[in-house]
What does this fold into?
Amino acid sequence: MKSQRPQITLDDVATRAGVTTMTISRYFRTPEKVSPATRDKIAAAIDQLGYVADSTAARLAGKTRSLLAVITPSLALPYVPEIIEGVSEVADRADAALMLHETRFDLTLQEQRIEAAISWRPDGIIFIGDTISDRSRRQIAAAQIPFVEAWAQSDHPVGIDVGLSHSDLARDMTLRLIGAGYKTIGFAVRRMGYRVEAERLKGYQQAMTAHGRAPQVFECGDQATSFQSGAQLLTMARAATPAPDALFFAGDLLAAGALFEAQRQGLRVPQDIAICGFGDYPISREIVPSLTTVALPTRALGRRAAHLCLPQAPQPSPPEPCTSSFVERQSARLAPVP
Amino acid sequence: MKSQRPQITLDDVATRAGVTTMTISRYFRTPEKVSPATRDKIAAAIDQLGYVADSTAARLAGKTRSLLAVITPSLALPYVPEIIEGVSEVADRADAALMLHETRFDLTLQEQRIEAAISWRPDGIIFIGDTISDRSRRQIAAAQIPFVEAWAQSDHPVGIDVGLSHSDLARDMTLRLIGAGYKTIGFAVRRMGYRVEAERLKGYQQAMTAHGRAPQVFECGDQATSFQSGAQLLTMARAATPAPDALFFAGDLLAAGALFEAQRQGLRVPQDIAICGFGDYPISREIVPSLTTVALPTRALGRRAAHLCLPQAPQPSPPEPCTSSFVERQSARLAPVP
DNA sequence: TTGTACGCGTTATCAT
DNA sequence: ATGATAACGCGTACAA
It folds into this structure.
């Protein structure tokens, strides 16, 4: 075993097996076109040399290996790993590699990461995020790479759009709270400037206005953790006039923070105030009281996005559903579908 | 804009700028060796064509682009995204791309993913996981690629090892519980066959034995969620004789599940039973009562692992600390450092 | 300062 | 069934 050998290549295997590189390549790609005898020789050579084919070269030469890129602001948002797991499932089935790019909520970094993603010429780019700059839009268009927005529905889709309508979902959830008999329903959100949160707010406002009610929005800064912000928002809402009898949070983490705070303050949920979240994170069903919320098909979203980039991936049959739902738990009552 | 152009290459830019490919290449790699005049022409050509250099080809030709691979059982474990974020920070600074491979707790899949990672010839492979098969060990050795185990300390490290000693941490935590005056300290764990959990159990047993106490271990199956298992384990422990006055959970999620269950049962924590976790997840400081636990330097671990693979990445000065700590919160008292 | 020519490791095409 | 040869797009000696 020569130690400083730069790399074991197809040539090495070929020499050892007494054939040419082309035969080795065929051994991998169309084994049935290689005679059983040489097949054994090749297998032995590969094993002895510990050969692993170079995907970089393979991809440059033909488009043999598949590659997917995921771009996301952060992995700390609970739904992001879930979407990525969906992507990864499909990628695995299609033997595709997965590249991950974080933008850290920074638009400049996002431009860089999008360009980096394009530079690897993946079979598709799956975008979890918010706004996309014009510069990036141009590059994406020029690159001719499928670009899938997998989280929020886009007003100006760059490519394919499998995202959710966060405004419709928030509107419908508000309608169900209204239908359940809550009189003054507030909406609580962190001031973060994200499109999805603005969408959710919009949906809430639509529903309230449609029923002739005055929207009552509580906002706080984005310095603290989501849990802390939730606590703060609950306190704000309790101090308002009129004090809401139900509070719809723009995210489950905020709502969970509010539940913890309610517990600290000795408030009863939902008797003193009903609380409702958005996202259905794992914690939401375990917390006491369990959280009424909007469940999002995150994994399915990821799978769907990946399928759009990898047409060769085995499709499930029947095609799997990818729908959101409203989950009534202990923290708030919900009216049935209108 | 020709639409079905296969790809925009260096050649296209060169032609448009009236120079050869070499000059464009230099423009990117050593701009100072290109005259300002042609520099402008090139910049214009790049912009007009929306050219993005092909990293695949670049990497095959020279080793211009950097690439890192992360292999993990899942993204659903709360510490995994944190470690990856650490990796990603450093990767960004070094202009390295990041590949992600999930093994889904399946050793066969893990072998495949490790081989896939190697096939892209990354500058390093960062492994978050447990056991590594012999076959994989051989491939890793043959590939000559830095292989960093970033989560658990390995008995038989394959490559570099920046992991934590989960047994030492569990031992010290147990010692602190003993020092705090708890009489019967139980250990609760899911039967999952992971090395890190076995390590934690071992540390607990060491500490108990050292103080002449009989270890009292509670185990449950791995079918349910962590939260549900935690609830189950709490119930088991309460039914035991003697009933422990403190329960050390092998993970924070289990402990959180126990706290929720205690709340449902009307048990007071820590008066009726003290509860202690391992991992310091975000939820642990927010839950009521807040959870006493072992805090792990996950992000720093990721950064450190990445630095080992990317020597060119700008190093922080002074070198950042990467140490665990014991966090006393409401759910259990802790003795100060022995 | 700029250009020529070859190599990186694999695959596709066309022969044999 | 197997081989020879030419790409794939870029980097780098070396030459001009």
Q: What stands out?
A: The CA atoms of residues 175 and 207 of chain B lie 6 Å apart. The mean pLDDT of chain B is 92. Chain B touches chain A through 58 residues (CB under 8 Å). Chain B has twelve helices and eleven strands.
